[in-house]
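Before the break, one more example. Copy the sequence into your notebook; we will annotate it together after we see the structure.
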Amino acid sequence: MVERLFSYGTLRLPRVQRETFGAELPTTPDALIGWRLGTLRITDASVLALSGEAEHPILVPTGDPSDRVEGAVLELTPEQLDAADAYEVDDYRRVSATLESGLDAWVYVAR
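Here is what the structure looks like once it is written out:
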């Protein structure tokens, strides 16, 4: 089974994918409409070490169709999706969303 995850942040980085999923994943550019990016300060030591970044983007809903967040759809297994859940800190929650392409994908948004 293939899961789709829309990433707009560090999960698109090859080094983060290799460490989190054991490989670089197939990705396709896409976008999420009606959202904008905010910033979240990360304090989790393992995420900081892996991403190399203290501030990560976080999606904030606006409902405004002119707001658009660029990203990529990652294709992963259910086990890799579990690994993505473990990588994301508690300030994020995973929800289903329809992307600009019409694909449905999981996406991490503000809790």
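The two ends are 27 Å apart (CA to CA). The first helix runs from residue 14 to 21. Try to locate both features in your own notes.
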